Each structure stands twice: as structure tokens, then as C-alpha cells.
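This part of the workshop introduces the protein records we will be handling. Getting from the letters to the C-alpha cells is the skill we practise here. An example says more than a description, so a record of this kind follows:
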Amino acid sequence: MRVPLPAANMTTVVGIPMGWRDGGAKLRRSLAAYPESPGGATATPPSHRRLMPMSTPLRRAMSLTVGWLADRRVPQFLRRPLYRGFARFTGADLSEVRGPLGEFPSLGAFFVRRLEPGARPVDPDPKALVSPVDARVQTLCRIEKDTILQAKGHAYSVRDLLAGVGADVELEGGHAWTLYLGPKDYHRIHAPENAHLQEVRWVPGCRYSVAARVLDRRRVLDVNERCVLRMKTERGPLLLVLVGALNVGRIRVQGVAATDSGVLPEERKVQRGEELARFELGSTIVLLTPPGMACPLPELVADAPVRLGQAIGRYS
């Protein structure tokens, strides 16, 4: 089975040989000014600092470099061959892309491409909990003793993951879906249910890779940079945690500035299937529901591919 490479690798493979002629000094100036998630690495919670490796500054520099490269304008004559090469390498489906390939000015713009209308129909069953993304299932588990399974033999704390959003005790006995977005996937995140978005919390942290080989060795999802979305639905609270990764420091939430963190001054109504946010490279989301609200479909297993709008759970 072919394992998708992290988006960072593809950006580096494609970007560096292109030889954009911005001198080293210009690159360093751009990196120094490049925005990071609110709070910065110095605001990492004390309980997590012991997990941060000595290479954290290097990881951040790599993330900034890849972001800088992804934003470089691609000459018009190179866009189609570049994006087609990316698609062949990752397995992305270009037939679903909205608009001509030549209209994407950079690899970063292509990465957050929109899809043709109707490409992702939402399951019409009102009892279906639908996937908010195109992804691959990493884990499905019940939340027990404040823990979620990250990978075989590795668990982490719900309280640490949420970083103060909501009450972790309300999720005890509920369920968690962990979904990995690979380089080939559509990278916009949509509402899995009709809801009111109540809170958006930006949580600073590390930028570990979320590749399976890393998740098997260390805690990652509760120490990486992330954005926690809390939504109110008719059935109860629903939380989405958007986890950044190595070379993925940019998460955008529709209608919410990166400087705004906390309870929204006015709840935002979202419809099932409506766009909520996007990753400007690839990463992972964790979907959490309280006890008695929804359960994963029995036929859904780890490593299974899922698509936006597809049923991944069933409401009680």
C-alpha cells in the first residue's frame, strides 16, 4: 500500500528545484515577518514544555520555509505541469477541481482548491453524522477516563487537547473520530451538522509531524498547535479540533480573525455541509461528541478513506 507523503515533502520536492530567484536575504526577511499561530511558541502550556524537543526552532523554521515556498507565485506557463505533477505524485483527482489549473497563482492556492458543485453530496439521512473532511480514519474510540486513543498503545488527555474549551467531563463516555488529511485530499473543513459556532480557541504548541510513524512513538495531537471549535447542536455540543503539524502552521476559520480567540461575541449559525475552515497544507482533525449523542458506524475501521458528507456515525 502506498503511504501518502506529508504535504511538506511534496512542497519541498516541487518547490526547491523550481529555483525562484529570491536571494537568501529576501527569504530570511520574509521568514522573520511570516505570521504564526497566535500566542507563539513561548506561550506553550507549562505541562507540555517538557515534551518539546531541542529541534523545535528548526521545526518552526522548516514550517515557515515551506509556507513561504508555497506562497511563491508560479509562472503561468509552469502552473498546469506543476499541478498535474503534484496530482500524479499524490493521487489527487483533478477532475473535481473548480476552475482552470492556470488560475491558481501558487502551490498554496492550489492546495486549498475548491471543488465543483455537487462533488461532495451530503448524506440526506438526518440520523447520520457526516464527515467534515476528505480524509483517512486514524482512530475511532470511546472517551474513557479523560483519554483518547492516538495510536496503538498511545493515548492523550481530552482536557489537554481542548485547552479549556468547554468541560472535558461532558465528553466522558462519548466518542472521538481522528481523521488524517493527506496531500491528495480536499483541505477545506465543513460543518458535520446544523449548528451554532460558539467558540474558537487558538492553542499554541509544537509542530510535530502527524505521520503514523510519529504517532506510534510519541504524544502529538494534544501538544501540537491547534484550533478548537465548539458548536451547539440540537442534540448537544460537538467539538472539532484542527491540529497543525510539521510545516502546517496555518489554519483559517471562516469569518474569524487569527487574533480572535475565545467565546465569539455572537454565535455564528452554520448549516450541515457549510464550509467552516481550511488547512493551508495538510494535517488532522479530531471530532468529539458527548455520551449518548452518536456512535461510529460499525463498518468504519482504521485506515479507511472517508469523504466529506459521507456518514461516519449515527445519532442515537
Summary: The radius of gyration is 19 Å.
